[in-house]
Specification:
Layout (H helix, E strand, L loop, with lengths): L3 E5 L9 H18 L3 E4 L13 H10 L5 E8 L5 H14 L4 E6 L6 H6 L10 H12 L20 E5 L2 H10 L3 E3 L8 H11 L11 E9 L3 H20 L18 H10 L4 E3 L1 H15 L3 E5 L5 H27 L2
Helix pairs in contact: 1-2, 1-11, 3-5, 6-7, 8-9, 10-11
Length: 339
């Protein structure tokens, strides 16, 4: 059965503060491992009042401490924002605190707007060295060589698994060349999904970390008892995306009954383009959507964003998703083993 994982946005809502958002993420991870999810990732975003995971490694530590077995990691760290040594030190420390549970997904985008890029002291050409930075980062996680003058303490020897994240074929080429697992961000940039997966699989070179390709597909899934209720819950995410186009990065807003009254026709077109692969509906609708996505992409893993405003409703969404996927997986296995 194709494993399910979670990408959590650590949303600060109109009814919570940053601490509440971090505690809700921790609580979701604890539930997720019971429901059978494989990973729980958070992402580096800066200057966004509605997202509380800017200090990503610290957020990961908080979440991992509240769970026992689920893998916790970054989806991802925007590597050109940092010296590889610093990220190795942070994630090596996490690996020592939570052995065998830490993942490190890396991307090359800034994760913010251009004004904040300047505040981060990121150089305009920082993304150009991304491949070299990934190799440097990998080296820090290897056992220290004799007389090695610069070590990432306590990262040496932890072999933290690195993932390449992407929303275009660039990341697919790099992940294939380095023999690393690849995660495609089709939850907000779906256009090049199939092309990127084809590049990754056709050009993949085996490595010490990974013998065969492993492709993860990101997707928005919101589940509720009925299609109508799920569509209503989904208006929170739709408003968030519309607000991005307006240049208004505020707190997460509660769902509304009439999304058409909120956005303009142009905003609607832009948002629906970004969210075109979303699966929103009742358990049966979600089941059909997940199966179709797996059949179309041959994904090795699905990473789910369920951007629901109310924490209990979000928990229920992930619980329903896990339940229908488990049932569907058992049915698939039964069908495959029938003579």
């Amino acid at each position: 059965m194709v494993p399910l994982s979670i990408l959590d946005l650590v949303r600060v809502t109109e009814d919570t503060d940053a601490r509440g958002a971090l505690d809700n993420a921790r609580d979701l991870a604890a539930h997720a491992e019971i429901w059978g999810y494989r990973r729980f990732w958070v992402a580096e975003h800066h200057n966004m009042p509605g997202i509380a995971s800017a200090a990503t490694s610290i957020a990961i530590a908080h979440i991992a401490a509240g769970s026992k077995s689920i893998r916790v990691g970054a989806g991802g760290i925007m590597l050109p924002n940092h010296a590889p040594l610093i990220i190795a030190e942070q994630f090596g420390t996490l690996a020592r605190l939570f052995p065998g549970r830490i993942d490190l997904g890396v991307g090359r985008a800034p994760g913010t707007d251009q004004l904040t890029v300047q505040a981060l002291r990121r150089q305009p050409t920082a993304a150009d060295t991304f491949p070299r930075d990934v190799l440097e980062l990998q080296a820090y996680f290897e056992p220290a060589a004799p007389h090695q003058r610069v070590q990432a303490v306590p990262a040496a020897g932890t072999k933290v698994p690195i993932w390449i994240l992407g929303s275009s074929t660039y990341g697919a080429h790099l992940a294939a060349e380095l023999g690393l697992p690849y995660a495609f961000a089709s939850h907000f940039a779906p256009d090049q999904l199939l092309a990127a997966l084809d590049v990754y699989r056709s050009r993949f070179k085996s490595s010490e970390q990974l013998a065969t390709p492993h492709a993860m597909v990101g997707v928005n899934i919101i589940a509720a008892e009925t299609d109508g209720e799920a569509r209503r819950l989904a208006t929170t995410q739709q408003m968030s995306f519309a607000n991005i186009f307006r240049g208004a990065r505020g707190l997460s807003q509660p769902p509304i009954d009439d999304i058409e009254a909120y956005w303009t026709p142009r905003e609607k077109t832009q948002v629906l383009q970004m969210l075109q692969r979303s699966i929103v509906g009742s358990p049966e609708t979600v089941r059909t959507g997940i199966n179709a996505l797996i059949d179309e992409t041959a994904a090795d893993e699905i990473m789910i964003v369920s951007d629901v405003y109310d924490h209990n409703a979000r928990l229920r969404s992930f619980e329903l998703i896990a339940a229908v996927h488990e049932t569907s997986g058992k049915e698939r296995m039964s069908t495959e083993t029938c003579p």
